[in-house]
């Protein structure tokens, strides 16, 4: 920890701010020692502003803007990004790691880290994505959001992406904040992009489904789940993979076999909370949205798993919206029975 603290030297208040980094540095494919010195002076100064407990909020935000500016310059080179991240990531990580740092400074440090496109930045943020290691919900939220930005970058090592997705899946399993959970799911989904080999992308979707299944398996029996929003957004994200033909029939059937029964759990959860779900307008809308996202996707999955002729023809969302409890229970009963049939559960 001492090394990390020393890596974030506070700037001298009398020192003038360094000038913006010139394009011949930010676009360089090779940096001289003099250029690296300029780069270090720039990074040290502005990370020092972020690390300084005496910095005012507006100074922290100025430091964030100055640290981000070189990353947003036209034609920024990979050489520059690598050299720059080596300089700024350790002190930014130190700010976040220190529990005594101001929340505002830590969040701004995370914002900068998320734009570096560096493997080391992913490592830094992953330490703060899980409730097991990070109790400050504000930091956990920003770290999860930042991981989503980083994992969409094409500059990351594939092994780092896969490791990050596994750790995010584990973080999902113990998260108790609905908004953070949404961003954790979104970060795993962001990792599933074209530059990765097809086998890795399938593994990422498998991790996503494992995370979703784990959350559904934790649905409370005696009250509405506070995670309904996050579950709904996760289902919608996965559905889009099917709709956009990212998932082929073989993979889709495998996903459907484990995910289908979880849809059944969601439907019975809605039924068990019928009264609460219709007594509160906001909760009624949340359940309605979840049922709407689930309805078409469930029918699509069932067609892949068991064949189109066996798919129940239901409109349980309409029954929910019409507050027709008898019809709703009759329609979901069809699905509960269907989802007990082989090959579900394999």
What does this molecule look like?
- The chain is an all-alpha fold and 346 residues long.
- The chain has a domain of 128 residues.
- It is 68% helix and 0% strand.
- The protein contains 17 helices and no strands.
- α3 packs parallel to α5 and α12 packs parallel to α15.
- The longest helix is centred in the last third of the chain and has 25 residues.
Write the layout of secondary structure elements.
Layout lengths: L1 H5 L16 H4 L6 H19 L5 H12 L9 H20 L5 H12 L4 H8 L10 H15 L6 H17 L3 H14 L6 H20 L10 H16 L5 H24 L1 H6 L1 H25 L10 H6 L3 H14 L8
Helix pairs in contact: 3-4, 3-5, 4-6, 5-6, 5-7, 6-8, 7-8, 7-9, 8-10, 9-10, 9-11, 10-11, 10-12, 11-12, 11-13, 12-15, 13-15, 13-17
Question: Characteristics of this structure?
Answer:
single chain; 346 residues; mainly alpha; 68% helix; elongated; disordered N terminus
Give a quick rundown of the structure:
The protein has about 350 residues and is mostly helical. Helix content is about 70%, strand content about 0%.
Specify the helix fraction band.
55-70%
Whole-number radius of gyration? Answer: 24 Å
Summed up, the helix count is 17
Provide the structure class. mainly alpha
According to DSSP, the number of beta strands is 0
Uncertain residue segments: 1-9
Shape: elongated
Strand content: under 5%
State mean pLDDT (0 to 100 scale).
93
Biggest β-sheet strands, sense, barrel: none
Terminal Cα span: 46 Å
Q: What is the string of helix and strand elements?
A: HHHHHHHHHHHHHHHHH
């Amino acid at each position: 920890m001492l090394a990390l603290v020393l890596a974030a030297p506070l700037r001298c208040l009398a020192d003038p701010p360094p000038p913006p980094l010139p394009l011949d540095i930010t676009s360089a494919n090779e940096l001289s020692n003099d250029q690296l010195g300029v780069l270090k002076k720039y990074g040290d100064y502005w990370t020092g502003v972020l690390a300084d407990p005496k910095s005012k909020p507006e100074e922290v935000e100025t430091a964030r803007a100055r640290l981000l500016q070189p990353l947003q310059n036209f034609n920024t080179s990979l050489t520059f990004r690598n050299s720059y991240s080596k300089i700024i990531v350790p002190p930014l990580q130190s700010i976040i790691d220190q529990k005594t740092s101001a929340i505002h400074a830590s969040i701004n440090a995370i914002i900068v880290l998320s734009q570096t496109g560096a493997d080391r930045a992913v490592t830094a943020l992953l330490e703060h994505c899980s409730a097991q290691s990070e109790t400050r919900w504000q930091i956990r939220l920003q770290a999860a959001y930042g991981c989503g930005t980083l994992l969409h970058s094409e500059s990351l090592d594939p092994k780092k992406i896969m490791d990050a997705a596994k750790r995010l899946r584990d973080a999902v399993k113990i998260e108790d904040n609905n908004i953070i959970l949404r961003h954790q799911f979104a970060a795993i989904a962001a990792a599933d992009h074209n530059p990765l080999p097809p086998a890795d992308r399938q593994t990422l979707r498998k991790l996503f489904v494992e995370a979703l299944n784990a959350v559904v398996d934790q649905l409370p029996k005696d009250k509405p789940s506070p995670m309904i929003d996050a579950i709904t957004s996760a289902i919608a994200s996965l559905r889009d993979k099917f709709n956009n033909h990212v998932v082929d029939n073989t993979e889709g059937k495998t996903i459907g076999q484990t995910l289908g029964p979880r849809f059944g759990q969601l439907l019975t959860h809605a039924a068990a909370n019928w009264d609460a779900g219709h007594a509160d307008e906001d909760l009624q809308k949340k359940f309605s949205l979840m049922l709407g996202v689930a309805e078409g996707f469930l029918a699509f999955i069932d067609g892949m798993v068991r064949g189109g002729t066996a798919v129940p023809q239901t409109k349980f969302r309409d029954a929910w919206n019409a507050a027709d409890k008898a019809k709703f229970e009759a329609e979901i009963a069809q699905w509960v029975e269907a989802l007990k049939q082989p090959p579900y559960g394999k």
